[in-house]
Structures are given as structure tokens and as C-alpha cells.
């Protein structure tokens, strides 16, 4: 289970509305609402680990130093990996994942503070040079892709649907583009690539794995069916048995 974005201090997030359905996809503008990393470590993580869950902590910082501070807090915790979110489109400021030097600086700051596996979640428009820079800086994997910057207009009011105007588009609508990006990253990197983007069933997961992804994440599909990830795993196992495959 990957957490939603955690920050150094609690955040209220963006005002509603926060979700907007669109054909084959979902727009969201949550704004990183979360209780802060200390509350997560004190209250939420113990409950998750008590259920035997593998936990990946997704973290967001305004500066490289904040990423380092959060990596330090997580270093001695029970989380299994740290996912550095360099690509949330729903908060103000520049995405550090869009510039190679800045992205590498985040990884360097976090790497100094933890031996946990470090994943880097990239924006969909990140150049290959960014992915290669975080690999050199010590990232253990990259996650591709985060949501695409998009918008909706409420035609009853004639104004943008979201208070911050733009939101993040996810769901099956972005899958072909995400698949292409994963394919390109796999060819350019030596570290694992984790595929994200519109995966709703086992067929989608197989496509990303065939494109070279080491693993996949399922997000928006959970709104359709909370059992989707579990069903995907079971159906993947059936597919492998039918094809007489011993490993992914």
C-alpha cells in the first residue's frame, strides 16, 4: 500500500470540489491533505503494519531539505520503502521532478538520511535526463507516471470546476501514454521502473510488465472496485498458470 502524499507538517488540502469524473478517467485536486508525518508514524503506520501490510510512504516536500528531514524520520520506522513525490500537480510551486539538477538534489538529500529503498515518482512530462539524474543520485526505482495536468469547466457557472483551476487526470484515459513512457524509461535506465497509469485489470498489468515494468501500482481503479488490486493478483496467477510461466 502506497500512502497518499505525506508532508512534514499537517495540510488541510484544497477546498472542494476535489473529484470530477471525465470519460475514462478521473480528475482530482486533493492538495496533499494529510495529518503530517509524525501523526502518520504514531497512529497510522502501526495500524497498517499490524495487518501485515507492506507500506510505501509517499512524501512531498517544498525543498530538498524537507525531503531529507522526512527521509530521516522514516529511516528507523517500519515503512518498507520511501516514495519521493516530485510530481504532484495540485499544489503551488514548481515540481522538482521537472529539472534534473533539482530532482537529483532531492534524492541526494534523502539518500544521506536513510537506507530504505528510495523510489522517485516522476511527472509525466519529465525528460529522460531527469530519470537518469535520479538514478545517478541513488534512487532505487522510478515510478511512472503521476497524473497529467488537466482541467474541467462547470458549464452551469462558466468557471473552472476546481478552485485551483487545474487538477490531475488519472484512469484508463492516460494508460497508452503512461505505457509509452514506461517503455522508454526501461530502455534508458538500469534501475527498476514501476508502472502507473490507468491500470484497472490484469490485462493492463501484463501490458506494463511486458513493456518492462518490474511492478505496477493501481490507484483510480480502487474507486471503481476496492477489491480491484486483489482480483488483479489472482487473475495474474491464473494467466501465468495457463501460459506455464514460473515468474513474472
Major sheet size, sense and barrel closure: 6 strands, parallel
Question: What oligomeric state best describes the polypeptide chains here?
Answer: single chain
Unreliable spans: none
CATH architecture classification: Alpha-Beta Barrel
How helix-rich are the residues, as a percent range?
Answer: 25-40%
State Rg: 18 Å
* Strand order in space, largest sheet: 3-4-5-6-11-12
Mean pLDDT figure: 95
Beta-strand content bin: 15-25%
Content-based structural category: alpha/beta
CATH fold call: TIM Barrel
Number of DSSP helical runs: 8
* End-to-end CA span: 20 Å
Helix and strand sequence: EEHEHEHEHEEEEEHEHEHH
Number of domains: 1
> What would CATH call the homologous superfamily?
Aldolase class I
Q: What top-tier CATH class fits best?
A: Alpha Beta
State the total count of DSSP E strands.
Answer: 12
Could you say which overall geometry the principal axes of the C-alpha atoms support?
globular
Record keyword descriptors for this entry.
8 helices, 248 residues, alpha/beta, six-stranded parallel β-sheet, 12 strands, TIM Barrel, four-stranded antiparallel β-sheet
Overview of this structure, please?
Helix 3 packs parallel to helix 4. It is built from eight helices and twelve strands. It has a single domain (19-243), classed as Alpha-Beta Barrel (TIM Barrel). The chain has helices at residues 37-50, 64-75, 100-113, 128-137, 175-188, 202-210, 221-224, 228-243, and strands at 19-22, 25-28, 56-59, 81-85, 118-121, 141-144, 148-151, 153-154, 159-160, 166-170, 193-195, 215-216. 38% of the residues lie in helices and 17% in strands. By secondary structure, the protein is α/β, with parallel strands linked by helices. The strands form three sheets. It has a six-stranded parallel sheet with strand order 3-4-5-6-11-12. Strands 1-2-10-7 form a four-stranded antiparallel sheet, with no helix packed on it. It has a two-stranded antiparallel sheet with strand order 8-9.
Amino acid at each position: 500500500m502506497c500512502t497518499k502524499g505525506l508532508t512534514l507538517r499537517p495540510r488541510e488540502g484544497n477546498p472542494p470540489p476535489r473529484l470530477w469524473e471525465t470519460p475514462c478517467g478521473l480528475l482530482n485536486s486533493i492538495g496533499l491533505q494529510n495529518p503530517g508525518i509524525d501523526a502518520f508514524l504514531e497512529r497510522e503506520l502501526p495500524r497498517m503494519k499490524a495487518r501485515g501490510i507492506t507500506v510505501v510512504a509517499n512524501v512531498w516536500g517544498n525543498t530538498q531539505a524537507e525531503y531529507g528531514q522526512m527521509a530521516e524520520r522514516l529511516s528507523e520506522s517500519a515503512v518498507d520503502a520511501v516514495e519521493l513525490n516530485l510530481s504532484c500537480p495540485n499544489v503551488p510551486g514548481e515540481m522538482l521532478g521537472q529539472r534534473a539538477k533539482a530532482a537529483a538534489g532531492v534524492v541526494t538529500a534523502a539518500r544521506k538520511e536513510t537506507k530504505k529503498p528510495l523510489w522517485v515518482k516522476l511527472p509525466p512530462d519529465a525528460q529522460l535526463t531527469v530519470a537518469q539524474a535520479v538514478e545517478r543520485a541513488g534512487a532505487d526505482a522510478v515510478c511512472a507516471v503521476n497524473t497529467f495536468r488537466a482541467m474541467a469547466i462547470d458549464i452551469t457557472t462558466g468557471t473552472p470546476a476546481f478552485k485551483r483551476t487545474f487538477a490531475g487526470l488519472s484512469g484508463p484515459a492516460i494508460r497508452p501514454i503512461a505505457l509509452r513512457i514506461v517503455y522508454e524509461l526501461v530502455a534508458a535506465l538500469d534501475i527498476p521502473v514501476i508502472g502507473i497509469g490507468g491500470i484497472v485489470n490484469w490485462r493492463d498489468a501484463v501490458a506494463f510488465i511486458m513493456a518492462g515494468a518490474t511492478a505496477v501500482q493501481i490507484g483510480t481503479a480502487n474507486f471503481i472496485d476496492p477489491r480491484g488490486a486483489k482480483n488483479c493478483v489472482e487473475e495474474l496467477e491464473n494467466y501465468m498458470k495457463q501460459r506455464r510461466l514460473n515468474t513474472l
